[in-house]
Specification:
single chain, 162 residues, alpha+beta, Jelly Rolls, five-stranded antiparallel sheet, four-stranded antiparallel sheet, 1 helix, globular
Length: 162
Amino acid sequence: MIRPKVCSGLSFALLYTATLLFHTVLCHTAAAQASSGGGPQDNAAEQARVAFSHALPHMDGGNLKVTIVEVTYGPGESSPPHSHPCPVIGYVVEGTLQMQVKGEPKVIYKAGQSFYEAPNGVHLVSANASTKRPVTFLAYFICDHDTPLSVAPPENTGSGDK
C-alpha cells in the first residue's frame, strides 16, 4: 500500500527552503551516526556538504509554500501516472526508487540521493525498484499558488520512450 504522509506545510521565503533541505541532510547524517554508534562527540570537527542544488523556476516569492510529503512504497508497489503542478525536490531516505518522467529515460535513485522534478512533468513511473524491501522518500513541494500537490496526467499521455 502506498502511504503518503504530509509532514508539514509551511509558508515562508525561499531562503528557508534551502535551510530546510540542509536540516534534513544533517538529521539524516545524525541518524546514521547514531545507528552506527558514532556521534558528534566522536568527530573533531563538524562536516557539511551540499547534497543537492538546482535552480527553481520563476516563482511569486510573496506566496511561497513548502509542503513535505513522506512517501513509502512497499515491495513492488508503485503509483499510477501523475503530474505535480509545482517543482519538487526529492530525497530517498531508504530503499531504491525507480522514476520516469515522460520524454526522459528511467532512473534509479538509492538511499541518500536527491532529485529534482520540474513542474507539470508527467510521471509515467514512480515505483519501488525492489520486490523485497520498501522504499521511503521525502518529496518537497515548493508552490507559489494554491493547487493540489498531485494531479492526473493529461489524457494524451503516452509512452516515455524517445
